[in-house]
What does this fold into?
Amino acid sequence: MRKKIILLVEDNPDDELLAIRALEKNNIMNEVVVARDGAEALDYLFGAGVYTGRDMSVMPQIILLDLKLPKIDGLEVLRRLRNNKRTKLLPVVVLTSSKEDRDLTECYSLGANSYIRKPVNFAQFTEAIRQLGLYWLVLNESPPV
Amino acid sequence: MEIAKRSIMYEIPMITKENLYKIFISIVLGLIGFCLNIRPFVFLLPPHEIKFMAGLVCPMIVSLRWGWRYGLLSAIFCLAFNTMWIKGGWISVVMILMFILWIVWHGWCAKKFGNTGNKKWNPYLFEIPFRLFNTLILYTIFRWVFQFNPTVWASNMTVTSISLNFANVTAIQAVVNGYLILLLSDVLIIFGPIRKIFGLKDIKEQKRSNYLLGTAVLIGCVFWVIDGAFSLMFRDFSHSIPPRGTESLLDSIVFKVPPYALFERLSFFIALLTGVILSTRYISRYTSSEKLLQKMVKLSPYPITVVDSGGRVESINPEFVESFGYKLEDIPTVTDWYNKIFPNIFDRRDFIAHWKDDMQKAKQLNTEPRMFNVTNKDGNIENIIFRQVILDEDKEYIICENVSERTRAEEKFRKLNEELEQRVKKRTTQLEATNRELEAFSYSVSHDLRAPLRSIDGFSLALLEEYNNQLDAEGKDYLNRVRSASQRMGQIIDDLLSLSRISRRELKKEKVNLSEMAESIVSKLEEGDPDRKVDIVIGHKVTAVCDPNLIEVVLENLLSNAWKFTSKQEKAWIVFDTVLQDDELAYCVRDNGVGFDMAYAGKLFGAFQRLHKDSDFEGFGIGLATVMRIINRHEGRIWAEGYVNRGATFYFAL
It folds into this structure.
């Protein structure tokens, strides 16, 4: 069975920690690759920069993408993902603080698979992560590589 | 160049079609007068006779209407061939000259005083000085020149000198002639056909006047002949009057009036004519309308110039002096005036060219006003609108309107408007920039302000979960407080964001069924709190034209407020319906909840303003601020009524 990697793109270490904690609390033991900005996420996906030479047959099962990122923002990452043949079909869940109509519209039109707003209440956040993991890692059939 | 011609005409009469017509008519009327004078009426006053020469009325009318020049022409044709007078030798020459002078005098007076109208012109009054002068001549020159009569001329004159008696009779004869002729000319000028000949407009009820006058003259003639016939019959019975003798029948019946009939006929004749004049009210109407016109010209707020057919400026009104600075003596003719107000020859030419076009239209009283730049006496340029009005042939009213102030004001207004537009543009750009900034701000608020809150809440929970054993009850309580505070803050941020989003959102209006909307909101409220029993009344078919998404926020807020504030009531009720308030349709949400003190009504709609303690009713005080903003965006109005513990009513009108 292939490894079901989760790619977490998050610049805020607190949020990163909380997200990982939420995953752990929900017993989602998949490998989590953390990219701290948009450029790093793209490097990982395209095997460039520090990730040069990585096994490109392994692609994340799900990408959790924050929108507000240093260097290259989440929307740009999403755009480049969708423009690349290899990553075009990867499931992307936007996980962000914003509830602006503008962001929602843009994300969906760029081909995001889901849009989740991080609640302040951690209990709620944990619940969201739980459902997310259940859905995307267990129920959902990923596209063929 | 019509204008130039008109002004020169005063000095050298031009042969125009109009002038030729006037000359022709003058001559024809003169000749008619001559024919009438061949057989004068004679009032017998034995041993004297008073002759009445009715034919003189023809040159007199011409003179009164068209001035002394045409009068003179007509008079010459009327009198020069009068053989009856030639027979008298030098005295006839004097008499003819006196009659000609008389006609010229009235013509001159009529032109001089008749049209300007400051003085009241009355031909009967002007007759007096002339008659005095005439009498003087009769008693001096007339008697004196008689001795120079060559015998050939006065072959049939039996007397060799003129007695005082004869002079007396001649003087009386002249007075009778003078006044009767003036009276006749006054009457005849009312007559329609005669008015046509002189190019005058019809008077009021011209037809009626024609009939009246015709009938009067006819009755007069019939009466005259009948009276003559009777007097002829009675002559034979009277001893004081010589019998008929050699007179022709025509003479005895029509032309020669016996002494006993003299007074009767004359007074009848005069009474008849006076009656005609009065009944047509010609004189009074003429003078009163003339007076009114002059008054209007004088009081007019517009500068007006009155110009006669010769191009001579007859009068100007005070406003004219005020506006242009020129006095009447500065501009004796229109040409002088044009030269002054248009110092530039090209402007003048342009003006005169337009003027010529308008001349014809002016006669039909439909000239279009034209604006010209005119130089006034101080050398300032003024914008003047000119209009021409020609009321009768010999007078032209030039009505000016000084629109400089208006033009300046318009210019100023235009400039101000432009400035304003510029300013609005600038402001709009600024506002757009501010809006963009605000958007960026709220965007970053929603991101950056919430992130730390998540950490606070998340790690507090982590502490509670991971270090549960090491924390005592108090520590746990503190952490719980930290959590609830951060969650509250997250909620406030969300509310604020939605408030700002409402302001930025585009308004899409359509017809919305508010009743249905309220029903669904209420059913949600009931689902969320199934234990409560609230009587809810929703008006039937309440509709509004508004943005459905935004108005839903309004109803949600108002209804959930009502729901919230009736929670402590035993028998709670909420009503949503429409009411008429001051002729305005208002929507209202009414409840019997805790209400509020009207003294604080002003604070209701401000953001973060709360009238109740947190412990009593939860909330952040943003709901009504949002509602207010939505109503404002609909250009509507919202207000509230409430009493402590007796419920509240929120009204809004769109």
Remarks:
- Chain B touches chain A at residues 443, 446-448, 450-455, 457-462, 483, 486-487, 489-491, 494, 497, 501 (CB under 8 Å).
- Chain B has five domains: 1-153+160-188, 201-297, 300-402, 419-502, 507-653.
- The radius of gyration of chain B is 52 Å.
